[in-house]
Amino acid sequence: MINEAPITFAYIDPGTGSMLFTILLGLLSVAAYSFKSILNKLSAFSFNSNSRSDHYPFVIYTDSKRYWNVFKPICDRFENNGLSLKYLTQSEDDPVFKEEYRYVEPEYIGNNNKAFSKLNLLSADVFLSTTPSLDVYQWKRSKNVKYYIHIPHACSDITQYRIFGIDYYDAILLSGQFQIDEVRELERKRKLPAKDLKIVGLTYFDEMKERLDETKKKKNEIPVVLLAPSWGPNSVFRVFGTELIDRLIDTGYKIIIRPHPQSFISEKKMMDDLMNKYPDIEWNTDNDNFEVLNRSDIMISDFSGVIFDFALVFNKPIIYTANDFDDSVYDCHWIDEKMWTLNTLPKIGEELTKENYTDIKAIIDRCLKSRKYKEGRKKAVEESWNEIGNAADNIFSYMVEKQKELSGDKR
Question: Which of 201-215, 222-236, 373-387 has the lowest mean pLDDT?
Answer without folding.
Answer: 222-236
